Each structure stands twice: as structure tokens, then as C-alpha cells.
Amino acid sequence: MDPVVHRLPAGGGLVLSVDETLPAGAPRSTAVWLPGLGSDRRGEKAVLLARRLSGSGRRFLSMDFEGHGDSTGDFAGVTVSRHLRDLEVVRRALLGSERPVLIGSSMGGLAAAVAAAREPALARALVLIAPAFGLARRMEARLGPEGVERWRRTGRLEGWSEDITVPLGWSFLEDARRVDDDAVAAAIAVPVLLVHGTEDDTVPVEESDRFRARARAPVEYVRLEGGTHRLERQREALADAVVRFLDRLRL
Is residue 228 part of a domain? Predict the structure, then answer.
């Protein structure tokens, strides 16, 4: 079934695009997909999960963050906090009082974790796929003091990765520095499925190892051997793990 496309006003003239994929009957639960930095709502993992979850009776919402995909706005101003504001727009418009399953990839996974830590009643469960914990620490280590200072002085970071070809504003790092990974792990109170490829050279798998060691909530941890950040060869395994996890929780 083709998704229903929602165009949600987000204030200040901004509009967020969200795909809604429905099951054949009444949905047993709702899952919300939060893409990674520079990715959109119709990436390959999102399309696969939309098919698999709607096919197993779930409603699937896939969002474009501000400045991504078909959503309006300035990409360069992206921050974790802005992602959380975008999620709140989707929540008010399409979820109401319903508690969804948040499924986030990379920076979307970090945003999902922070959202659930700050508001324990927000979600019924989390699926975190290579969540970008240690974001500020890893960026600063890669750039070095001179690179960080140049970013602060110019307000722009160019050429961060092959996938991110537009500049990132200085607010990206300022905001990421305010995320306390250990506090987030300790505050999450819902079941978590954590999935990470062992050959991820974007977000090292050790970041997920660290999260699991500090988490208070129950964590099911799936380390996909040989998996890269994109999980090119393990996407079906990812989808299988997500469906099994939700089935066990009866969601």
C-alpha cells in the first residue's frame, strides 16, 4: 500500500513531510521512524520497515526532519534539539495521546533516546540503530582543537562526510555537547532494542556497548557481524529483529 503523505505546519512557515503506512486492519501499535543526519523518510531501511511493520499489523510513520527530504527549512541549522521539536510536531498532529515505538537510526537514534529520557511516558519502546552516542566527543576528536576553533570562528563546518555536502552550523556542536550519554542511558525506562554493525566506521560499535552497560531499562542488543553504518547486507536481519522484538512485547 502506498503511504499517505502528510504535510504538517511546524511554525514560522516551516512544513514537515511525513509518510503514513497503514496495515490492512486496525493497527496494533504505531512506530515512528527517525532518520539519520542527511537521510530522509524514504531511505532503504525506512521503506523496508514500513513494509514489514505494516504487513505485521502496525502503523508506520516516517518523517523528514527540518531541512531534510521534502521538509522545508535550513539543513545547516540542524541540532538534536531541533529534531526533538520536529518530533513533537509529528506527535501533536498524528499521535495525540498514543505512545508509539520510536525507531531511530544514527542521529535519529540519538534523538529518540534523548526524547525518551526526557519524557518517560513518550514512547512504549525504543529501537536504536547505530545511535550516534558520543557525537560531540567524536567530532571534536576528529577535527582537533584547531578545526573546532575554526568551526566556532566561521560558524560553518564544510565537508564533514561524503554524505553531508552542505555545511553544519556551529549550533550543531554546541547542542551536541549538552547531551549527557550516561544520563540518557540511565533515564530511559522502556524496553530497548539496540542494533549495531560491528564494522561501523561512522559510529563505532563501542558506543552501543557503552550505552548497554549504563542502561537501566532492559536492552536487547543485536550486534550484526560485518555490518557497516548503512547495514547494506543486513537490512533483512534488522527488520527481522525489529519484528521479533515488537512481537515479544505484544506491540
Answer: yes
